[in-house]
Amino acid sequence: MFALRHIPALGIATAHIFGGMVPFYDGANAISMFGLPDRIASSHPAQVIMTVTGARNTALGLAIWMLYLQRMLSAVDTVLVCLGVVGLLDGYICWREDVRRTAVSRATAGVLFGLWGLFGMTTG
Fold first, then answer.
1. What does the pLDDT look like over 13-22, one tens digit per residue?
2. Residue 20 near residue 56, CB atoms below 8 Å
3. Which terminus of the chain is less hemmed in, N or C, by CB atoms within 10 Å?
4. What's the Cα-to-Cα distance from 32 to each of 27, 38, 117, rounded to whole Å?
5. SS3 content of the chain, % helix, strand, coil (to 5)
6. How far apart are CA 4 and CA 60, in angstroms?
7. 15-52 pLDDT, tens per residue?
8. 54 near 21, Cβ under 8 Å?
9. Are the beta carbons of 89 and 41 closer than 8 angstroms?
């Protein structure tokens, strides 16, 4: 079943699983790793929200892996399209917070993930 074209989706899924766990033990660091400024990272309410977001990211990563293991590759591509939209929105939020380099990076990654899924690259 495995093919090289599956690597991007599985890499994204794995990154979401483990990246989503970071806020559970260090919310401020997770916000900094995301690329937002220290004034946000040091905010306890922001850390709580980042933890909630991390749980959802972990669930999305697990969903991709579960769909992959069930050989539902078109569903994997669909989730990647959705993550592409999330990446664009992440970029927009970072842009608004004046972290332009992070904004461009996140938006670009979102576009690439989304296009990978949109063109059915995992499915083949």
1. 999 999 999 9
2. yes
3. N
4. 9, 7, 28
5. 80, 0, 20
6. 21
7. 999 999 999 999 999 999 999 999 999 999 999 999 99
8. yes
9. no
